[in-house]
Amino acid sequence: MNLNESLIDQTIAPEEKQYSYLNLGPTHPATHGIFQNVLKMDGEIIIEAEPTIGYIHRAFEKLAERRPYNQITPLTDRLNYCSAPINNIGWHMTVEKLLGTEIPKRVQYLRVIIMELARITDHLICNAVIGVDTGALTGFVYMFQQRELVYEIYEEICGARLTTNIGRIGGFERDFSPKAWEKVHKFLKEFPVTLKEFENLLKRNRIFMDRTIGVGGITAESALNYSFSGPNLRAAGIDYDVRVAMPYSSYEDFDFIIPVGSNGDVYDRFMVRQEEMWQSLSIIKQAIDKLPDGPYHAIVPEFYLPPKEEVYNNMEALIYHFKIVMGETDVPKGEVYHCVEGGNGELGFYLISDGGRTPFRLQFRRPCFIYYQAYPEMIKGSMLSDAILTMSSMNVIAGELDA
Amino acid sequence: MEGSDQEKVITAIKEKYEDEILHIEAPYNFLTITIKKEKVVEIIHYLYNHLDTKFQFLTTLGGIHFPEVNQIVVMYQLHNLVNNQRIRLKVYLPAENPVIPTITGIFAGANWLERETYDFFGVIFEGHPNLKRILNVDEMIIYPMRKEYPLEDQTREDKNDTMFGR
């Protein structure tokens, strides 16, 4: 994008110009994370950008090679920590695919509810932060109040809030409690009101539209070439959604649309995420309506902790308990790729098992890492303040970027 | 991907690059083709343009180290978004000197993925515009995802995990 070419002083030849260099980051309050960008600037126009990443690299792929399968779930929490349950459940489904486990319908529906709640929190933060970066702090505060409600639901289901470690390989450790359902219904009642209010605040807001339309855009061809996925790709006009392309966890049972944009700019990304939240709400409602009865976990004794009662009274249960806790369970050999639609796009798990208790190789396909490399191209020729806005609208999450 | 679609892709590759194919399998119904390293860019370019395949989306790219055979595998995963087909290509390289041509000319998104593979496995991507470390510090002298580097410092004496083989 060379939007502001006209703003560049054309009276001086490029080779005679003295450019200034600006270190944006690593720790800069406006970047919402630890990213460094060395910007070559002509006045306020960015000529070139050189991103440096890896500030919170924690070697998850290496760590995973030494951990039993159930202990890898907490690592996935810390990838995209704004939508940790999607990562957890994506990982569980990868292992289940490797094991060939049949998952009960109820578990699949409960997972859909959790994953859509997670998607809402993810998009909610992103859109609220776009608001903040354009100067609208009010919306941010309203939306964060709603995020709290979702975190209370997580808390009721698994006991944790941000890094959830939700569910187990095979299902959930316990069924949703009545209190949890109460909170889900409370959220479903209160959130649409706030979301509508937030949307009204920004959607046709003159200042917001002037700040976002045509800013940080990317064409569909370029987005595909950069392997974009998720809302950022859809904002550029390509309707690729893993939930529809390769339905997992019974997504084929639900009716929802894939919103697409046309310009791939900040406004389109905002609107795509906004519509996806409405769609997620609709999916949650459908899942609750259609929720079948049945067990809340599959029968995978090698990975699913038996009830404490049985551990004390039953030999097999005690053995399984010991094996799970000590991580002594061997898994079959195999090579699996499973992907889910994460908050930022196609979140893939490429797993090679050599038959041992730990993966031989586990690679995370982190959508953030892949699309952030287009950032220098997207901000070239734009103003510094637009660069900040572009970054927040791409929803770059440091944890997912650096793994 | 259905079996007949996989056949189509295999036929498309065999049409022109029969000699380059080393092995074909489909673990968990995911077509995986092992190819020789010389024509990897050519084959990916061919798959990108061929009407039956049109693999125009790079899903992921990464390395795998097999210490027993002293080889490093570079794995490419491509996706045809129109027909919703996927393919995985694998190229075996000797671990002492893993050199492979870059595919950044076809997929701009391969840039950082190749840098990451270089960073962690030491695979040299010939012709890459900016092949340097990406997640680790520049001063690092090892390629940490290779299997010969254990996770923990082996000289530590304060940890005794011999009981459970950690």
What does this structure look like?
The complex is a heterodimer of chains A (403) and B (166). Chain A has a three-stranded antiparallel sheet. Chain A has a three-stranded antiparallel sheet with strand order 4-5-6. Chain A is mostly helical and 403 residues long. Chain A has helices at residues 60-64, 73-77, 84-99, 105-133, 137-158, 178-202, 206-212, 220-225, 231-235, 242-245, 266-290, 308-313, 315-326, 367-371, 375-379, 384-394, 398-402, and strands at 20-24, 36-42, 45-52, 334-341, 346-353, 361-365. The mean pLDDT of chain A is 90. Chain A has one domain: Orthogonal Bundle (Cytochrome-c3 Hydrogenase, chain B). In chain A, 48% of the residues lie in helices and 10% in strands. In chain A, helix 3 packs antiparallel against helix 4 (105-133), helix 4 (105-133) runs antiparallel to helix 5 and helix 4 packs antiparallel against helix 16. Chain A contains 17 helices and six strands. Chain B has 166 residues and is an alpha/beta fold. Chain B has a single domain (3-142), classed as NADH:ubiquinone oxidoreductase Nqo5 subunit (Beta Polymerase, domain 2, 2-Layer Sandwich). The longest helix of chain B has 15 residues, at 3-17. The radius of gyration of chain B is 18 Å and the shape is globular. The model of chain B has no long low-confidence stretch (mean pLDDT 87). The interface between A and B is large, with 45 and 36 residues.
